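Pipeline run #58 for the internal structure catalog. This entry was flagged by the ingest filter as a single-chain record with no existing model, so it goes straight to prediction. Upstream metadata was stripped on purpose; only the residue string is passed forward. Reviewer on rotation: M.T. Logging verbosity set to normal.
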Amino acid sequence: MGLGRADTDRPTALMASGTAVPERPGTDARPGKDPRPRDGTGSGARGPRRPGWTPDALVVAAGYLALAVLLTGGQWRHPGRLFHQAGDQILFEWMLARAARAVTGLENPLYSTALNAPDGVNLMANTSVLGLGVPLAPVTLLFGSQAAFCVAVVVCLAGTATAWYALLRRRLVASRAAAAVGGLFCGFAPGMVAQAGAHLHMAAQFLVPAILAVLFRPGRDRVRRDGVILGLLVTWQVFLGEEVLVFLALAAGVFVLGYALADRAAARRAAPALLRRIGVGALVAGVLLAYPLWFQFFGPQHYRGMAFDVDGFRLDAASFTAAARQTVVGDDYRPGLLAPNPTEENSFFGPGLLVLAVVIVIWLWRRPLVRALAGCGLLFALLSLGPEIRVDGTSTGVPGPYRLLAGLPLVDLAVPARLALVCVPVLGILLALSLDRVWAARFSAATEPDTGPATELAGPESGAGGGDARTPTGPPAPAVPVRLLWTGAVAAALLPLTPTPIRTVPSVTVPAFVAEGGWRAYVPAGRTVVPVPPVTGAAVSPGMLWSARTGLAFPAPGGYFIGPGGPGDRAARWGAPDRPTAVLLRRVAETGEVPPIGDADRRQALDDLRHWRAAVVVQGDLRHSEPVRRVLDELLGPGRDVDGARVWDVRDRLG
């Protein structure tokens, strides 16, 4: 995920080779004078300043936005449906609704008892996406949680693509088209589309290019200002998704190390400013994040470890050459064998793109940027294979490098399969560099100056629309046939990866009794609505969806989240600790089998309802509605139908 620059000029190297250096604004080209710009940066690679957003950039951004809207069309046109990983969408709809409520009610955004009543949920220790939820609060309040979720998906996809376009155009390439292709891949690669349909915290990567741009800004001035901006961006990213930030930090460290190995002298020159920016940024972020991070790791309902086995969330090595489900050549069968689930198809790049990447690396090997990118991408691809490498469904017994990271703090909270997402910007940058070489190059391999990593890493500073990183010297760009051949090769590699609209499934129905507020007559302050079943595991939670769609109007037990195993057990688990009645109702809802109900079951049901502080039990439309109704009638007495729901009023029985 590193930064570099295109084939930048270094005037002293050009002068030494006898190449004339043209006069540019801000330079002094008189004999014997240093032709570098008089800007205080000490860099001779400053391109002409351009306006922040040029018309072409706006057109590119509009194209990304249109594509994101098209991919989410399954919900814009069908409000009664959810994206295929329905439980995850319900989780994030609830988080967006919770953020809006925290804004309007001035409530603690890091904790809530509206879910998992009465114990509550540590939202900072879950994927609360406050960095999206707070800005989107007006959308959530005006149009509801589903609209807010769809808008968030569009923002994540189009925003990430646009941010990478801006960085590529500003720092790395001169060709607008090359930057547009690179940004398109970075925002809409198969892994990004797969994550966007379910995991907002992984799809929200639009700050990654901004963080890198500040971290590797050219020049040694304004270090404190850059550090403050860096700290603010890192803080925002924490509230978008800590997992992405951990991956970014690891990838940037690996990239810088690789670059330093390519040119140690240049690394020593660049290190002081880079380290000072990091120091100031860490101080700013540390102050702003001190309490939220304390709350996450030591606050109410905090937990330790992961709620799943990392061995089940790794990628198959064969997945890198396979086609993802949501592409024009994908299917539902083979990806299911190579990835943990449809949302973790992070590595499905296809054979054409991987071959192209190898060609690019060999072709541009002289550039330290390319060598560092190649090393970074290869390492993270290997890490995504998990503790033991598997090929085409068969375990090889070969240990993967992930074992070296498995015990590290924070890393042990990440999903190994998602490490392959680092390969997305690596490939996007390589594609942009190659297209820029054939579309806008001025230097041939024989005359390319030796820029050194420090200059290449920082890049020229210009307007956000991008400065031209090249001088008008050297031989002309490659001939038309070469351009056409390479453009065709890139198109052939990328066309099979064209994304298709995110698949949808029917949504859980919100009964009118809940949606229209009929429950209010039954639920006094301090009491809860108990949905049926009160899900405690990683499954679709009807009560959580009801809560989200009504703006968290009532507290409810259960839900889909990660929390501790119990008061004396901090080990992570999905949902609340199981209670016998919840387990019983969930089993009946899933299987349709009605077990014998005795007095012990009835007493247990009352105990569990007291724990949940229940006022009313509500059953909506379920796959096995009739068996569940019979069990509840046996446990609580006959219920009654009210506005599309089956209702059991338990206030008198619980006191």
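catalog note: The first strand starts at residue 81 and ends at 83.
catalog note: The chain has 26 helices and twelve strands.
status: ready for reviewer M.T.
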